[in-house]
């Protein structure tokens, strides 16, 4: 299917092309470099133009593929290059559309060895219809992580250095957090331990850069919850862990009801903490082919109450996780 350059613009990419590309990827084939370059250039321009904080509304109509369900937004956590598990999510929950929107909460790449296919699929849907899929940056949408955990090697094997640099530019402009229905705050790592941070501070974060070691951006990408009050240095060596009191104060002063974050593998695919105020969602089942965990995603309808769906891993071609990595690294540290 041949496309014109003008079709690689938000809202103009044909759905048929996206579906054909997904089938191509499923068969371990790539789309041409010229299409990837156009896609990445267009996405960089698009993301550069929008806020660091995405506002997402619950659709007014039910998903077209399942009109008996309530209108909803689907939130997924880390998918980490597990393309065949992403296909399974779409099989279970329907393809992205304006009436079936998804929010993927960072860490699309690294670890799994089909990261190129995962992120290209998400970006193709984004150009098809910006209202059908939302992406927030994770700590693995960064140059340092990509160098260690496989994405750089994978892109340079499947394409080249130029395409990898374009990916980094797109990553640097991705939004850093989202609010669903003016009530549910979603960020990859979590929240800042600074008790004065407001949503406007997040909106004003300068993007187009790699995350500074200590910054509000790094807090959103790297932080983790802890069960006891207050803050502690992160076990990851970057940022802080935040207690239930910090979560409650952040939600109260910003008029929010719930924090959803990802960033950590969970045996059941999700974990509810902080008296029900913090949810971790993780969508890469049998993480790195070794963990045996379930994956999960969350539906939010107009009630804004979380509704969880769990799933197990599906078979994938015989390419091991971390096949393109510069160094194995620890499975759990970052």
TrEMBL record:
Residues 31-315 form the Serine/threonine specific protein phosphatases domain. It holds the Pfam family PPP5. The keyword Repeat applies. GO terms for cellular component: cytoplasm; nucleus. Its main location: nucleus. The keyword Ion transport does not apply. One of its GO terms (molecular function) is metal ion binding. Its EC number is 3.1.3.16. InterPro entries: Calcineurin-like_PHP, Metallo-depent_PP-like, PP5_C, PPP_dom, PPP_phosphatase, Ser/Thr-sp_prot-phosphatase. Keywords: Hydrolase, Manganese, Metal-binding, Nucleus, Protein phosphatase, Repeat, TPR repeat. Its cofactor is Mg(2+); Mn(2+). It catalyses: O-phospho-L-threonyl-[protein] + H2O = L-threonyl-[protein] + phosphate; O-phospho-L-seryl-[protein] + H2O = L-seryl-[protein] + phosphate. It is found in: Nucleus. It is an enzyme of class 3 (hydrolase). Belongs to the PPP phosphatase family. PP-5 (PP-T) subfamily. This is Serine/threonine-protein phosphatase T. It comes from Fragilariopsis cylindrus CCMP1102.
